[in-house]
Design goal:
Length: 168
């Protein structure tokens, strides 16, 4: 089948309820989340943070827990009942940890971004984000949807990762 087209995000998504999540520890870029058009300002390293439900503009608990994280190598998502271990065996993968909430006083959707339907994702491509005054697509090439080309001349999209849940 042909999967060519424009996509907000490309990858694999899983269900994992955040109600029992305590923290995350990961090897990758951090400590802040990224967007397709806002990849600067993060540093490669080992990062750890407690779960929080920060909604940007409503509280000052930073860095936010929910969002996209770049350059994933490995992550441990620590929950009350065990640890979900994720190891990336491919380069340039993104980790999606849950979806941030919408600010109550928000008057537009430009700054919300587009997230996969599930709670945890390993992605090859993520969505851009707009500004208070304009949509993401109005900000140049890095802010456009991801293009997937189906051609015998293009390498297929691929990625490899491992998941393991270790109960307490």
């Amino acid at each position: 089948f042909d999967v060519a087209g424009l996509y907000n995000h490309i990858g694999v998504t899983f269900d994992f309820p955040d109600s029992n999540v305590k923290s995350v520890k990961w090897l990758g870029n951090g400590p802040y989340r990224v967007w397709k058009n806002r990849m600067k300002g993060v540093i490669f390293g080992i990062w750890e943070k407690e779960y929080n439900n920060t909604v940007t503009g409503e509280s000052w608990v930073y860095p936010e827990f929910k969002g996209f994280y770049s350059n994933l190598f490995a992550a441990d998502l620590i929950a009350v009942d065990g640890t979900l271990k994720i190891v990336a065996a491919s380069e340039d993968l993104f980790l999606h940890l849950f979806t941030p909430g919408k600010p109550v006083q928000s008057t537009n959707v430009n700054t919300l971004g587009v997230f996969p339907d599930g709670q945890i994702s390993i992605l090859n491509a993520i969505s851009p984000v707009g500004t208070k005054f304009s949509k993401a697509t109005e900000h140049g090439p890095q802010s456009q949807p991801n293009v997937l080309v189906s051609s015998s001349h293009a390498d297929p999209l691929s990625g490899k990762f491992y998941l393991k849940f270790e109960p307490n």
